[in-house]
C-alpha cells in the first residue's frame, strides 16, 4: 500500500483508516498497551491503587464556530470523553495549537474562553501547552491537539474487547446532531438551522453511570468519526461477538432525519461529540438508562440492541421495515474535517 | 491586543509569544502547575514515590525531511527532551498526525519508521494516537503532535525558576546546527550542505548527568525556538537572577558561523533540537561537563557563563571584542516552521 497517497477516507473512522492503523501504526509501534485500541491508553503506571489513562486527539473541524460549539469546546470534549470511555476520571489536559498567520486574535480569544468554560464543566485543568504559527496558506485557520490524563478506579475494567453475549447496547441520546450541524453550517443548508451540535463533556453522566452500577458497564465508546455504525463494528470485532440493533429504537431528531433523507445519508454513520454507546450487563441495563436520563446529554438514553454469540464480528440492523441487514463500516469519506 | 491578528512572531519563542502566553493562556487557564512554564508539567499525581511529568509539542517543520532528521524524528526528540528537562525519565508518547489529502504513503512510512527508531533510542513507547486527514491545501503535507509522560525521582527538583547566583551555565555542544540545516535545505544554500541538524534524544546524556551529580543540576532547558538567547532570558526572569555569558566560550561550528555571517544572523538566536542548557552548582560543574562529553550529543559540552545576583532578569554577553552588551529576547520572526 506504500505506493499510493493519503485519501480523505484514511481519516473517516472506516475501513481504510483501520487498514492504515493496522499496517503502519500497529505494524511499527505495536505493544500491549497500544494494541488495545481503546479510546485511551491504560498505562502500567499507578497512582496509589488507581491506574493512569492517557489519550490524544487533534481537531481540524471546519467551520471553527458552529451551532452548539466551536473547535475549542470540541477539543476539550473529545479528549475528556475519550478518558471517560475507559472509566477514567479526567484530570489534566494539554493543548497544542497550530495557528495560521493572520488569524484574528479576537477569534483566538473566543476559542480560548470556550476551552476554559468547557474545562470547568468537565472538571479538568490545563497543565501544559504549545503554540506554533505557520505561514498564511500553510494551514486552514487553526488546528488544536489536546491530550489528557485521568485515573481509573481499581474496580473498573471497561474496554472495547469486554462486550459479552447477553449485554444490552445503550445509546445516550439522539445521534448525528454534530454531523448535520457542521454540514448545515458548511453548506448553508437552511432547513437545519435550529439544529445544534451535541458536543458536550460527559463527565457527570459517566460518573453517575459507574457509581450506580459499578462493574456492570463492560464497554463505553463515543461514536465520533464513522458514527454509531463504526463503533458497533469495532465492538463486534474487538470483543469477538455479534451485535444486533433495532433501527426503530435508535433515537434520531426529526431535523437530522429530514436532513439525512434530503442528502442521502444514514444517521448511523453520522458523528456525535457528546454521546456514548455502552454494552452493559442486561440485568442492570434499565437501571443504567434510568440514571443516564437524569443528565441533559443523556435525556434520550435508550437500549437499542444486544450483544449476541451469533454472527461474530458482524453488526445486524433490524430495519424499520421488518427486515435485517448487515450494518457495515464506512468506506467512502462522507464528511472531512467534521471534528 | 484582541484587535490584531496572529503573526509569525507569535510563534518564534520571543517577546510576542510570551505576551500571548501571559495574556491569553495564563490569563484564562492559570494554575500552579501551568504557571511554572517548565518544559514539562509536573503533576500532583505520584506513582509510588515518583512524580509524573507531562508535556506536549506540535511539529510543523518545513521541509519535512532535512539533513540529520525528519519531522518524525524531531517530534519524538522534542517531546522526549522536554520530559528530560524537568529531570523525568521519559516513558510513554502519544502521536497525533494531521495529514494533507494526497500525501504520499511512502513518505508517511519513512516518517513512521524514523519515529519508531528514535523511540527505541530514547527508551519510550507509543501508547496512543490519532490521525486526521484534511482536504488538499488545508495543511502543508503533515503536522505531528507528540505528548509525553515520564516519571521524576523523588530527589530531583529541576526547574526554570531554580537557578541560583554562583551557578555555572553549561551548554551541551555547538549551537544552531538545526536552524542552519533547515534553512540551508529550504533556501538551497550550497555552502552549508555538509551541515546536519543536531536533532537527537538526550535520554542517555541527561540520565548520566543526574546520576553523576544528583541535586547539583538546578535548571535544564533545550534551546529550541528563540535559541540560546531566549532560554537564558527565561532563566533570568523565572529565577530572578542575572546571567552572564562569554561569547568566546560558546561552541559554534565553522559552517554555522559562516552561514550566520552571510545571512546576518546570530548563532545565539538559532534553534537546536538536540542540545541543552543547564545551570549547575559551580562546585560540580567540571564533573558534569566531563560526564556530558562522554556522549555523542554532549561531546562539545562547555561552561559558557555564570548566574549572578546583579542585573536581575537580564542576560549580559561578554563579546569576543572584549565589550559587554545585553542579550535580548528575539522580537522579529527569523525562521517560521523551524520545528
Description:
Two copies of one chain form a homodimer. Chain A is 30% helix and 26% strand. Chain A has nine helices and 14 strands. By secondary structure, chain A is α+β, with helices and mostly antiparallel strands. In chain A, a hairpin with a 5-residue loop joins strand 13 and strand 14. Chain A has two domains: 145 residues, 60s Ribosomal Protein L30, Chain: A (2-Layer Sandwich); 159 residues, Phosphoribosyl-aminoimidazole Synthetase, Chain A, domain 2, CATH 3.90.650.10. Chains A and B meet through helix 1, strand 1, strand 2, strand 5 and helix 4 of A and helix 1, strand 1, strand 2, strand 5 and helix 4 of B.
Q: In percent, how helical is the residue content of chain A? A: 25-40%
The total of helices of chain A stands at 9
What is the multimeric organization of the chains shown? homodimer
The largest pleated sheet of chain A is described as: 7 strands, mixed
Give the CATH superfamily of the largest domain in chain A: PurM-like C-terminal domain
Reading the helices and strands of chain A in chain order gives HHEEEEHEHEEEHHEHEHEHEEE
User: Largest beta sheet of chain A: what is the strand line-up?
Assistant: 9-11-8-12-10-13-14
**Spatial gap, N to C terminus of chain A:** 26 Å
In the CATH hierarchy, the architecture of the largest domain in chain A is Alpha-Beta Complex
Tell me the β content of chain A.
25-35%
What is the total number of structural domains of chain A? 2
Please report the two chains with the greatest interface, counting residues with C-beta closer than 8 angstroms to the partner's C-beta: A-B, 83 and 82 residues
Instruction: Give the low-pLDDT segments of chain A.
Output: none
Q: How does the overall form of chain A come out from the CA principal axes?
A: globular
SS class of chain A: alpha+beta
CA radius of gyration of chain A: 19 Å
What fold name stands as the CATH topology of the largest domain in chain A? Phosphoribosyl-aminoimidazole Synthetase, Chain A, domain 2
CATH class of the largest domain in chain A: Alpha Beta
